[in-house]
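Format notes (please read before filing issues)

Several people have asked whether sequences and structure tokens are stored in separate files. They are not. Every record keeps both together, in the order shown below: the sequence lines, then the token lines. Line labels are part of the format and must not be stripped during preprocessing.
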Amino acid sequence: MIISGKEISMKIKEQLKEEVAAIKENYSRLPKLVVILVGDNQASKTYVRNKERGCAYIGIESEVLKHDDTFSEAELLAEISRLNNDDSVDGILVQLPLPQHIEEEKVLKAIDPNKDVDGFHPQNAARLFLGQQSFVPCTPKGMLVLLDEINYDLKGKEVVVVGRSNIVGKPISLLCLQKDATVTIAHSKTKDLKKICSRADVLIAAIGKPKFFNHEYIKDGAVVLDVGINRDENNKLCGDVDFEDVKDRVMAITPVPGGVGPMTITMLMQNTLEAFYKRNGE
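Then the structure lines:
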């Protein structure tokens, strides 16, 4: 089975669109997301454009504040402070990576946790760790939705997450633990990676290496969630998993493109609506 994040995210976007239409009827304003983009990173520009399109489609108000590389850390922190205090803004997202002269951790900590729709503020990360209500990072949240859509129960399953980033690896590990899975986090220093991966009921690949995981890493009947977005030898988009090599032995797999990626933007929209409701006392 190929898990189409494109189709599933479209279905959720239609539901969100209906929600926003109801908000329009019942509230004095619409939910609003503000994205801050600093610098000239082409991939970041693409992501931000996709976020704008997502907002426009479901009816959320969005604003992109673009700055060049000379924008200082102090100026960025002042902008975030202004947005924290703006009652018309529900979600604030600072597009990563930031230019080298700006300290990422300081910037993420400056965002009001109640407007942190990316789920990267230490307070939201701690809440996720403790199993409390929080904003969940969009990519891991989307992966759980994909598993729910194929009615896959994680209880008692062995999940191997390859990659330990704060954005994907760590949060998806915690989310799977909350679903009663047995979780192993593997990474670049892991010994005998092949052996560990090949026992996984669910393999989550998030290392940024094109077509790294072939059939030797994957057991028959496994579910594979591929977070990688890379270019292959022909400059075509591909994931961390060699899709053609493994597709016939897995139970289900996400393709690249069209798998996990579309879910990330949709979960951002969902988090923005959650922030709106929360700030309206719901």
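For reference, the curators noted about this record: Strands lie at 32-38, 61-67, 91-94, 158-162, 182-186, 202-205, 223-226, 230-231, 237-238, 252-253. The chain has ten helices and ten strands.
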